[in-house]
Amino acid sequence: MRRVTMVAAGLFTALLVAALPTAGASAGGGQSTLVSTDPVAWTPNVLDGTVYAVAVVGDEAIVGGDFHRVASADGSIEVTRDGLFAFRLGTGAISTRFAPRPNGTVRALAAGPDGTVYVGGSFTELAGGAHHGLARLSVADGTASPEFTAGIDTGTVFTLAADGPTLYAGGTFGAVGGTARPALARLSGRTGAVDTGFDAAVAQQRSGRLRVSKLALSGTGALAIIGTFTQVGGQSRNQLAVVSASTGAVRGWYTDAYQQQCNESYNSYLRDLDFAPDGASFVVVTTGHQAGPTTMCNAAAKFDLTGAGAHHPVWVNRTGGNTLLSVACTGTAVYVGGHQKWLDNPYGDKSAGAGAVSRPGIGAIDPDTGRALAWNPTHDRGNGVDALVTFPAGSGHPGGLLVGSDTEHMGHEYHARIGAFPLP
User: How many helices (H) and strands (E) does the chain have?
Assistant: First the structure.
């Protein structure tokens, strides 16, 4: 039974749900200006664990991870929320009705149609029923959509993206709903049925378990994926591939940039990717321990999507030996998060090399030049910023950037594990 402490009438609000348009990797998409360096004061605080995923449905933010306790921004109210909760953008009011209680970690979220949210992770139960790794929930009350019956065979769902009536899922599974789809599947967003016409044939992991770690939709018919694979559609594709979003057929686009080994303990050192709002390019961020002016480890790299054949990065921004975990592209900026200390640091090795600029935990890169922008709010480093999600203006707020992590301070203020930088 979920324990709620210090609950007072009127201090929480029920969620107001809006039907959602087509949703890609970022909820807000393009933004014409940088967000402020001063965080909003209204986001709740997550008091333990890690926030791994955030999605936006109307004026509600849904937050997933492995946490258990959530408090209001002023600390006057604390509730138990095992791995999943929702709050209202603009006020921070935590939903009293959205409490699905997954019995495992939530790793992925995506906005669904008609006021719903898709949830992926390592759970086998939530919302009072059996749901193996996948579910679609009503944001209004946290109930599961009974017609959505998708479930994975084993493993974890690590990444989700929704496009109108379609849902894409990636992870360490071998099958969905009894249909073999190693690590990547396209599903009906309504029923969860596997689209048998889509098969990317992801295969041949570098080591460990075959996994699609993250995926992103271009909005122009392409799906980019990163993971442990070395082959997609029978073609050599090392950790990064672009496939048709409708059929899964591997595109002629490829890069050899990630052939090198960064650290033998990583079966994949690519951590996140996101498309620019126009879908013409995308940015990949990495870990890897190694540093240096030629390595692709611990770096953000932009790639053009146009054309077939080999592609080299348009630019690479290196941290000098510290991990980047997340990225969000807005057209104005490429926001990156992790536990980095610096950007513009190709000559550093766990140190500030020539030209390095201090950007602890979070930073912004010029999408054209690949150089760090002046934006520097700072963020506790910890393990790092795992989630960056833009959100558009809504009722009582101007839109901005949501940030999920395992630490407690951003912009020199206390904002535990979830916070937001507003647009001016």
Answer: 0, 39
At 7, the amino acid letter reads V
Write down the CATH superfamily of domain 4-10+17-406: YVTN repeat-like/Quinoprotein amine dehydrogenase (2.130.10.10)
* Token duo for residue 10: 């009127």
Q: Which residues contact 197 (CB under 8 A, 6 or more apart)?
A: 246, 247
Residue 54 pairs with which residues in a beta bridge?
Answer: 63
* Model confidence, pTM: 0.93
Which distant-in-sequence residues (6+ apart) come within 8 Å of 32 by Cβ?
331, 332
Segments making up each domain of the chain, as ranges: 4-10+17-406
Rg (CA), the chain: 20
Q: Could you state, in chain order, the average pLDDT of each consecutive group of 10 residues for the chain (424 residues)?
A: 30 31 46 98 98 98 98 98 98 98 98 97 97 98 97 98 97 97 98 98 97 97 98 98 98 96 92 97 95 95 97 98 97 98 97 98 98 98 98 96 98 98 98
